[in-house]
Amino acid sequence: MNKTIIGHYIHPVLFLLYLPLFLLTLIFFILYKQDALNTVAYIGVQEHWFFFLNSKLSQYPKLQYNLTQLGDALVLLPFLSVFVIYIPKIWQSLLSASLLSALFCNLLKRLFTVPRPAAAFDNESFVIIGKTLSGYTSLPSGHSITIFTTLTILMFTFMPQKSGYKFIWCCSLLLTGLIIAFTRVAVGAHYPLDVIIGSIIGYILGLLGIFINHQYNIWAWVGSKKYYPVFIIAFTIGSIILINKIINENLIIFYLSFISLIISLYIITYTYVKK
């Protein structure tokens, strides 16, 4: 299957970065025109939309709280764990992109230091689902970065050959990503622009992950059975982490993630031992 994917894998070109970079520039220009490049004004210009979206989306608290967990790499990546065996090319790009995501997310949060909604507004004035996050790490949304980094890699990896199908495929994944990303507003953890900016950055980092892997192929060892014990250990640790999450919060999404990881752990262990 990996050979088939390699054959159809779209080698990204530079122009794919033009649109997301343009969107980031446009957001910057709009904020500049509204004199909203400082923290107080940045929060103020989207205050209305935050309260509106939070009130509407939070009407489905269990659904939103389950979906928002997919922004956690420890919950999202187990759903893709089986690709380590069958389509390692995905994980080669994911590893590069994930490292970039972690780096940029932390750097940007430290740079902007925007207070989260719970630190800026009266906590009784909007809906908070789950743990109250009140630090100064609102911009950008790390969950949105993780979601779009991953979906971007999947989007280009499984891109259909026909143009009509490509459009439907891309729109479907982007819409799915936005639905999941905006759960961060629903649970009261981020402002709308945090999510939008994080989603755009995630898309860019997903592309960069593909670029790096295509250009340098530094993760070629991922597809080698010789290194399966590395993933067996990683999957085992991930399973323990998910068990702990289940014990603490007992969410359906944790069970699904855990089951996916256990299946992958069984397959990779069986494949390695069988050799």
UniProtKB/TrEMBL annotation:
Gene3D superfamilies: Phosphatidic acid phosphatase type 2/haloperoxidase. It comes from the Bacteria. InterPro entries: PAP2/HPO, PAP2/HPO_sf. The chain crosses the membrane at residues 12-32, 67-87, 141-160, 167-189, 195-216, 228-247, 253-273. Keywords: Membrane, Transmembrane, Transmembrane helix. Pfam families: PAP2 (PF01569). Residues 93-210 form the Phosphatidic acid phosphatase type 2/haloperoxidase domain. This is Phosphoesterase. It comes from Chryseobacterium pennae.
